[in-house]
Design goal:
By secondary structure, the chain is α/β, with parallel strands linked by helices. It has helices at about 20-35, 55-65, 90-95, 100-105, 120-135, 140-160, 170-175, 180-190, 195-200, 210-215, 220-230, 235-285, 290-330, 335-365, 365-370, 375-390, and strands at about 35-40, 45, 75-80, 85-90, 110-115. A hairpin with a 4-residue loop joins strand 3 (about 75-80) and strand 4.
């Protein structure tokens, strides 16, 4: 079998003969990417690379001898020592260091083809190192997640230091690591998992898609999922859907409760202000009788009475919401499809009743017109009869 011819150029160094075409390519590469040939003895390891495994070095050495160096290494120069520090390609460098002097001169007569990078800070250097390793290495979920989270920390650090370009950090990480923004977001989401689910993710007992979905749920919901996995030995997606529905309904219930409580506070403030104004006008009227003041007092009292009724209505709604919340917290059974339908129906009815209450104020303001207009009066009477029938 004929031996395979080895070419030596940018991205692949395997022969002692460099053709003219490759020389031109090398010159262009030097200009565009600061491509250089660096002797292996002038290169040092990078302490930041300790997190990445340096295994199968012997097999990689044999691969380099037989097929060449398929990817250049990346370095940064330490101007103080006139030496180079690895950014990516440490396994390749270790493999090349295993070559005998003769093998090294044969395959790398000018040195190791390298992309020499310059950085403004140690933070930029670490970003480049991590990004290169994430892109080059096919590592497990845990290490990939740790790398992405570390990148996020570094980008956030640069943003805190006043670098305005770091707005959409997940998008920047995606561009740097050649991943999709969606995938990066999934990995960053896993930081919100409870420790037990984090451990299952690290052991790859749950995959990245599930882990990301679980991370947006509350601690209580995540505990339920953990119990399910521990009980069944796997993720039951139908049960997860039920848990997510429960979570969404609980959030909506809390949101409604908070809104009603805010409304109640405003009504309380309004009643206090109206009470103050009534007292002020009553005192003024005692000193100086005034028909206009009497009318104002009457209007204020009417407004106060209306606000007090609305307050009482809000208090009843809050009481009901709190009871619903308490019942939900005490209930540990799964919500059935019929129960979900019932909850949705109740929510729609409450919304309709609230809309009618608002409309009723319009009808009340036109009471005199309704009484005088027979058509309007008949419609109101029909509507009143329907309400009576509804409650029978």
């Amino acid at each position: 079998m004929a031996s395979r011819k080895k070419n030596f150029g940018v991205g692949m160094a395997s022969s002692s003969k460099i053709t003219e075409n490759n020389t031109i390519k090398d010159m262009k590469a030097k200009q565009n990417f600061n491509f250089q040939y660096i002797h292996r003895d002038k290169i040092d390891t990078n302490p930041l690379n300790k997190r990445y495994a340096q295994d199968d070095i012997e097999q990689l050495k044999e691969s380099i001898i037989s097929t060449g160096l398929l990817h250049n290494i990346c370095l940064t120069k330490d101007e103080d020592t006139d030496r180079y520090r690895l950014i990516s390609g440490e396994r390749r460098w270790h493999a090349i260091c295993l070559l005998t002097e003769e093998e090294y001169k044969t395959h790398f007569p000018s040195g190791i083809p390298s992309h020499v990078m310059a950085f403004d800070s140690e933070t930029d250097e670490e970003i480049a190192l991590i990004a290169a390793n994430v892109e080059d290495r096919d590592e497990g979920q845990e290490k990939k997640r740790d790398s992405i989270l570390r990148l996020k920390e570094l980008y956030e650090l640069k943003r805190e230091q006043g670098d305005t370009q770091y707005k959409n950090i997940n998008k920047m990480i995606a561009e740097k690591t050649k991943m999709s923004t969606r995938q990066v977001t999934k990995y960053t989401n896993t930081a919100k998992l409870i420790p037990e689910l984090q451990e299952l993710f690290n052991k790859e007992a749950i995959k990245i898609d599930d882990a990301s979905n679980f991370s947006v749920l509350s601690e209580e919901a995540q505990r339920k999922i953990l119990e399910m996995i521990q009980r069944d030995g796997k993720v039951n997606h139908e049960n997860v859907k039920t848990i997510k529905k429960q979570e969404a309904e609980a959030k909506e219930l809390q949101k409604s409760l908070s809104q009603k409580e805010d409304e109640l506070k405003k009504k309380e403030s309004l009643i206090e202000e109206l009470t103050r104004q009534v007292k002020k006008l009553e005192q003024k009227s005692k000193l100086v009788p005034d028909d206009v003041a009497k009318d104002e007092i009457s209007e204020l009292k009417e407004a106060k009475e209306k606000a007090e009724k609305e307050r009482a209505n809000l208090q009843l709604k809050i009481q009901k919401l709190e009871e619903d919340k308490k019942q939900r917290e005490q209930r540990n059974i799964e919500i059935t499809a019929d129960e979900l339908k019932r909850i949705e129906t109740i929510a729609k009815l409450e919304q309709t009743i609230e809309q009618f209450e608002n409309s009723f104020n319009v009808l009340k303001s036109g009471k005199n017109i309704i009484i005088q207009d027979q058509t309007l009066r008949s419609k109101i009477e029909i509507l009143a009869n329907r309400f009576d029938m509804l409650l029978q």
